[in-house]
Write a structure and sequence with these properties.
With 351 residues, this protein is mainly α. It folds into two domains: 25-291, Rhopdopsin 7-helix transmembrane proteins (Up-down Bundle); 296-350, no CATH class. 65% of the residues lie in helices and 9% in strands. The strands form two sheets. The protein has a two-stranded antiparallel ribbon. A hairpin with a 6-residue loop joins strand 1 (156-160) and strand 2 (167-171). Helix 1 (26-52) runs antiparallel to helix 3 and helix 5 runs antiparallel to helix 6 (132-150). It is globular, with a radius of gyration of 26 Å. It starts with 25 loop residues before the first helix and ends with a helix. The model is unreliable at 1-8, 204-217 and 286-339 (pLDDT under 50).
Length: 351
C-alpha cells in the first residue's frame, strides 16, 4: 500500500505542511520560533518607547530650532523603527523573494547604526569643540562605523523555508563582524572621552573616597553628574549588547539565528539609550536630588531667579530680602561659567 500523496505536492511525511516550521529540522524550527518571539518583543519595546516620547519629539520641533543634530536624531529614531519592523516582517510573514527581501532590514540596519553613532559623534564634537585633533579622530572612528555597518548588506541573504514563501536569514560573508567590532570600539572611545573631559574639569586631585565619588558622579555639579551618569548608562547597555554580539559571532558552533537575535536586540536597546541621552541634553534632565539645578541648566526659555539682597532697614536691623525676577538663558550660561563642560553642552543644546 503506497502512502497518499498531497494535492499540494508536499512530502507525505509532513504532519502539518501549512506551517513553515514543518520544513525545518526540529532544532532549526525551535531556533526560528525563539527568534520570532524575541524580535517581536524587541519591536514592542521600541514602539512603546517611541509612543511615550511623541510629546517630547513634538516639542523638539515646535519649541526648538530644527538643526542638523535634531535631523540626525529623527533619522536615527525612524530608521531603527523601520529596521525593527522590517526584521519582524521578514522573519514572520510569507513575503517571498527572500534573497532580495533580506536586503531591506540589512539596509535599515546600516542607516540606524550609523545615524545613532553620529549622534554621539556630535556630542563629542560639542564637548571638544576647540580640540580639532579629537574631533578628527572621532570622525574617523565614525567613518569606520559607517563602513563597517554597510558590510551587513552584502554579507547576509535570505532563503526560503522549504517550499513556502516564509524566509529566514542565511550568511554568505565572513566579514559581517566588521560592524560589531567598529561599533564596540566607537562606543568605548566615546564613553572614555566624555568621562575624561568631565572629570578633568571637576577633578579634585584627592584620593580615596573622594576620587571614587567623582568617578561615579556624586561629587560633581548636577549638570555634569547627569551627563556623566547618562554616558555610563548608555555605555553599559551598548557595550553589553555589542559584547554579546561579538561573543556570539566568534564563538564556535553558534547558529546564525542566535547571532541575529542578539544583533537585532542590540540595535534597538542602543538606539533607545542614545536617543534618551539626546533628549535629556536637548530638553532637560530631571535629577532626583537636584531638579532645580537641572532645570536651570537646560531651560532655554526665561526662568525665574532669586536675588538675595542684604540691607539695613529703617529701624537699623540687618535683614535679607529675596526678589524673584526673570532672567534669560544668557544669564544661565553666565552662571555656569565655572563649568567648561556644561557650557559646551549648552552650546550643543542650541544647535
Amino acid at each position: 500500500m503506497t502512502p497518499a500523496t498531497s494535492p499540494y505536492n508536499f512530502p507525505p511525511y509532513l504532519l502539518n505542511p501549512f506551517t513553515p516550521m514543518a520544513f525545518l529540522p526540529p532544532d532549526d524550527a525551535y531556533r526560528n520560533t525563539i527568534m520570532g518571539y524575541v524580535i517581536v518583543g524587541g519591536l514592542s519595546v521600541f514602539v512603546w518607547d517611541f509612543l511615550i516620547h511623541i510629546p517630547t519629539d513634538y516639542r523638539l520641533v515646535v519649541k526648538h530650532n530644527v538643526k542638523f543634530p535634531t535631523v540626525i536624531y529623527y533619522l536615527s529614531r525612524w530608521s531603527t523603527l523601520f529596521y525593527a519592523v522590517s526584521t519582524v516582517v521578514f522573519q514572520t510573514a510569507p513575503i517571498g523573494n527572500c534573497a532580495a527581501s533580506a536586503k531591506i532590514p540589512c539596509s535599515a540596519y546600516h542607516v540606524a547604526v550609523s545615524s545613532t553613532a553620529l549622534l554621539f559623534f556630535l556630542r563629542v564634537r560639542a564637548i571638544f569643540e576647540k580640540d580639532r585633533t579629537i574631533t578628527i579622530v572621532f570622525f574617523v572612528l565614525w567613518l569606520a562605523v559607517l563602513g563597517g555597518s554597510v558590510t551587513a548588506i552584502p554579507s547576509l541573504s535570505g532563503v526560503h523555508i522549504g517550499k513556502t514563501k516564509y524566509c529566514t536569514f542565511s550568511s554568505i560573508g565572513t566579514y559581517r563582524s566588521a560592524a560589531n567590532i567598529t561599533l564596540a570600539i566607537f562606543d568605548t572611545c566615546v564613553f572614555i572621552a566624555i568621562t575624561w573631559r568631565i572629570l578633568r574639569d571637576q577633578f579634585t586631585y584627592e584620593v580615596g573616597d573622594q576620587t571614587k565619588s567623582n568617578f561615579f558622579g556624586r561629587g560633581l555639579p548636577a549638570f555634569s553628574r547627569a551627563l556623566l551618569q547618562d554616558g555610563q548608562k548608555y555605555y553599559m547597555v551598548a557595550m553589553i549588547a555589542n559584547l554579546l554580539v561579538l561573543i556570539m559571532e566568534f564563538a564556535p558552533g553558534i547558529p546564525l539565528i542566535y547571532r541575529t537575535i542578539f544583533l537585532a536586540t542590540g540595535v534597538v536597546l542602543t538606539n533607545i539609550m542614545a536617543c534618551r541621552v539626546f533628549r535629556h541634553t536637548k530638553m532637560g534632565c530631571k535629577c532626583k536630588d537636584s531638579q532645580a539645578m537641572s532645570a536651570l541648566v537646560f531651560n532655554t526659555n526665561n526662568i525665574a531667579s532669586v536675588r538675595i539682597r542684604n540691607h539695613i532697614n529703617t529701624v537699623g536691623v540687618h535683614s535679607t530680602l529675596s526678589d524673584v525676577g526673570d532672567i534669560s538663558s544668557r544669564n544661565v550660561e553666565g552662571a555656569l561659567s565655572g563649568y567648561p563642560t556644561s557650557e559646551k553642552l549648552l552650546a550643543y543644546q542650541r544647535r
